[in-house]
Task: structure prediction
Amino acid sequence: MGGRVLLVASWGLPAGWREVEYWVSVKHRAFEEFHPVVCRARSSTVAIAAALLGWGYDVDVVIYGADTIVNPGEVGGGVELRRRAQELYLGFFEEMVRGCSCCSGFSGSLLGRVDIVVVPGLGLYHGYRFGASIEHIFNKVFIDLYARLGRPGEEFKWVFMDLTHGVNYQVVATLYATIAAAILFGKEGRVVILNSMPVQSPAPATRGGGTAQVASGQVGEVPVVEVADVSQLQYGISFIRGLMSLKNFDTEPVKEVHKDLKKRGGEAVPEDVLNLIDRAVTFLNLVRNGMAALAYPESYMLPGPDTENRVKLGFNVCEELSRYERELDPAEFSYIPNIDRDSKVVDYGKTSMWTTLTRYSLTKVLKDICGELRSPNNLAEFLEGARKALDKRGYKAVSLMVKRENENLNSFIKNLEEYVRKCGKLLRSYSVVPENIEESLRSGSEVDVNVLLYRYFNESRGECVESISKVLEIHENEVKDVMRIKEMGRDMDVSRVCRNLAAHAGLEYSLVRSFSIVRQGGEVTITRVLYLENISEIAKKCLE
Result:
């Protein structure tokens, strides 16, 4: 029993909260053995934290308080406003812990494990219009929770949320941000959401004993209140769920959201993020459809038949993941307010929830997937990682396809030296391999598979033909058939090429120009693959 709990709370204006008797109980079956805790306190957050400590849990408390608690006219600027708000919330929390009837023995733990995060404000307060949007608040809370839940070595067993005290829009944004972060880190089933019965509060008092100005304007003024559509938060949750489906190599939900994001334009989601989503979908589709070798990081192609200037296929999205991780800058979403005293407006600048969700969430999901596939030293390692990932997700048939291809490649490589010994004179005459195979292996030289298997296959005779065809299990008639297709042009039979490509896990030999081979740890391995031209277009047609 026990473990670490993250208690998330949304706070508005604590000055008006009075002491009530809280009955804290949790209906979740994991907590049903615990008796309810009766606690006199000025905040349900304090009562819940004390109850969890009494039940044997370690508790970290994070309070998201609105900066509307501070009068902008009484501070020098946005940084001071934030600092002052943080001080006020911390002061209120300390007072409430010290006055809590059930906190005896826990006050030290509570005061030492609380963080105050001040979020942008929205509405009319102190005669100022706080101009944040619900997306500002969502982003601020989501990124903070992203850091907390993803912190190495600090695993939270449960995430509790107290919805009692916040302002309406603030509670909604905090709730959705908490759920989104919990889904992303695989903790949706371990979220406990609590609320308390409403109690009428007296007029809120300031620390000086007066009455706090909650709404803007003079006596008798009718405030202008906008009814805002916040349904984009639900779209955000749907997007997170779609991203999580990528972990099962299911790309359909994300493809639908991707279409919607493209319609929103670059102002909502940067073009590079949209491209990353598109590349992630292609990458996972290649693996899921048995064309894993095309997603190998060291895969190249010839851009045309008349040039040797190879280009990287670039299907492996894991290669650029570290760059995207470096670009994740929480400071970008600090939203330090700008106070305009003439217009009485507190401004936070523009923001987009989609930028936050795509950058942070997609990076997290891809990091988890790429961690499974590892950073391979050679093609065999990559295919084995792909095979295990496919097998884990129930793609048994595709997993066997990749396994078979890997075995064929290993067989091909193990017999390479034998080919050179038996057919050395013929192969060297066509410049297929250098005269000294060991020199080739040390330097990582390429073996021209296209030449080795096709161009001079029909001209070779005797022991060489028998050896190659036997080990590679390729019949001479099949080779002639492939050659005819190539002569007519690949587009004459794209469907057949696609079938072959899938059947051979991305290494159908009529589409491979050469392998780079090297000796690693006493074994000969493939470290680079060069495909013929147009392989990228062919692969995409196979995925349509």
